[in-house]
Amino acid sequence: MKMVNKNILLSLVCLFCTLAVHASNRPDKQVVDSTGRKIKTGWNFGILPSVAYDADLGFQGGLLTNVYFYGDGSQYPEYIHSIYAEAAYTTKNYGIFRVNYDSKYLIPKHRLTLDLTYLPDAMCDFYGFNGFQSVYKSEFHKWNKDPNKMSADYQSRAFYKYKRDLFRFAADIEGTIWKDIKWNAGVGVLGYMINECDISMLNGKKHAYNLNPETGLPTDHKSLDPNVVGLYEKYINWGIIDANEMRGGWHPYVRAGISYDSRDQRSAPTKGIYADAFFTYTAAFDAAYGRQAEAGYNHLQFNFTFRHYVSCYKDWVVLAYRLGTQNNLAGKSPFYMNTYLNTLFIQRVLYEGLGGGNSLRGVMRNRILANGFAYANVELRCKLAKFDIGRQHFYVGLAPFFDLGIVTQPYQLDEATISQRILNEGLVVSDYFNFDDKAIYQPHMSAGIGLKAAMNENFILSVDWAMALNQQDNPKPANFYVKIGYLF
Predict the structure, then answer these.
(1) 34 in a domain, yes or no?
(2) Is position 306 within any domain?
(3) Would you state the pLDDT for residue 300?
(4) 90 within 8 A of 59, measured Cβ to Cβ
(5) Distance between CA atoms of 306 and 327, rounded to whole angstroms?
(6) Cα(101)–Cα(116) distance, rounded to whole angstroms?
(7) Percent of the chain, pLDDT > 90?
(8) pLDDT grade for 92, boundaries at 50, 70 and 90
(9) Of 95, 228, 366, 420, which sits with the fewest C-beta atoms within 10 Å of its C-beta?
């Protein structure tokens, strides 16, 4: 908790120490619009150190930057070009390497977004299929600094983890059909390279796993036991995860749909509606490190999103809510792709559904893993103060929120076969599954509040605190997320 608070404080300090470079043809005069509001022109840069710490991922260091070009400022707060770049790495091989470009002016009357990302993840979360149908046992992976207080059921901090490296390239374009109604199209490729956690790498030399020959206990209680079989491996052994999907694969995709956008701005709308409906067809090849995937891994998904921004008091208080769903219409989607939330335009590092800071804040990342799901997010965005530092415009605000998610298309699990395989290993079925069908459709809910600090309307630092309303989703009462931009 102390470390999280230090990171939040550091990020806030860094925001207000942001390097802001302003280029304009009128350097001695601040440009204003017809209402007297100060507007931005030329180039503007925001730079932040990417600094964090995680007990499993280690220390993270790097940089992120967002470069905006406003031209003569006639379209402010809309930008002409936005270039976002981030490079960060940790001492235990978790990385973010990303470049994103967004513009409505490079191709006249069209919006173009390009994204190139590589995300190595040494300990990706995996809690099983169908949400609450998969039982979460915190004692299986809850580590205690005092080995004498360790739960007798403790297995490994990596029990609910697996290794996942993700490569992504996406190119998306939008054109106008009529007024606020748009057509959308995109192409891209997703490359997943997955495996069991590399325990020797996670332990390193400092916490190598060795047993005391006299006691038979580990000489370092912080080390991970390489002999413990994690949940991801158990799913393979129980036949739930198929051999053709257990090591990932490469998936090119094409996307097409329509959208409606009447928002007054993209980064922090104060009024308007954004809605979209689109189809994504994803192919499969080079699965399982070279084995050709079965034709069934080619699949078609449908997404629908509705966002509404209601001004309660000018731009000072805004009610914002989002409703969405993603469902598989044809073919079979490999399990690792069902954690990916399709979107027409990529603005965040990773869209994961459902659970975690990009979908259901306070709920554990990837807690809801199913063929189809629906979700809702509600926020009351309140600005507390506006001020200028030099020629840069800032505001600080608070945003209480509520998030909800539910399974709409569950995996069809063979209860009898799975139960027998669990019993054959001498395990208890109820430690892993609740086969009551009602559990599948029980909603996952969380609530919290966010602190927002923004520069020039577009560069927004979000510090969200959230907690799950069901301990099966996350027993921790305090979960913090430090990100750039609003959730939606």
Answers:
(1) no
(2) yes
(3) 97
(4) yes
(5) 15
(6) 9
(7) 63
(8) low
(9) 420
pLDDT score for 204: 86
Which SS3 state, helix, strand or coil, does residue 336 take?
helix
Decide: helix, strand or coil at residue 209.
coil
Burial 278-303 (b: 16+ CB within 10 A, else e): bebbbbbeebbeeeebeeebbbebbb
pLDDT (0 to 100) of residue 352: 83
Q: Say which CATH number the domain at 184 has.
A: 2.40.160.50
Do residues 249 and 297 lie in contact, with contact meaning Cβ atoms separated by under 8 Å? yes
Nearest to 234 by CA among 115, 140, 354, 146: 140
Number of structural domains in the chain = 1
Burial class (CB in 10 A: 0-12, 13-18, 19+), 72: middle
| Amino acid at site 62 | G
Q: Is 326 exposed, middle or buried (0-12, 13-18, 19+ CB in 10 A)?
A: buried
Which amino acid type is present at position 478?
Answer: A
> What is the number of residues in the chain?
488
Strand 110-125 with 95-107, pairing: antiparallel
Residue 419, classified by CB atoms within 10 Å of its CB into exposed (0-12), middle (13-18) or buried (19+), is middle
Give Cα 376 to chain centroid, integer Å. Answer: 15
> At a CB cut-off of 8 Å and minimum separation 6, what does 18 contact?
46, 47, 48, 392, 455, 459
Residue 85 lies in a domain: yes
| Contact by Cβ (8 Å): 293, 252 | no
Residue 465 region by backbone torsions, left for phi larger than 0, else alpha for psi between -120 and 50, else beta: beta
Give percent above pLDDT 70 in the chain: 88
Q: Residue 473: pLDDT above 60?
A: yes
The DSSP element (H or E) to which 440 belongs, if any, is: helix 437-440
Contact at 8 Å (CB) between 44 and 22? yes
- What's the CA gap between 187 and 126, in Å, rounded? 28
Q: Is residue 271 part of a domain?
A: yes
The two structure tokens encoding residue 88: 């960060």
DSSP string computed for 88-146: EEETTS-EEEEEEEEEEEEETTEEEEEEEEEEEEEEEE---SSGGGBPP-GGGT---SS
What range defines the domain where residue 337 resides? 74-196+230-484
pLDDT the model gives residue 468: 96
Q: Which pair of tokens denotes residue 397?
A: 């605000």
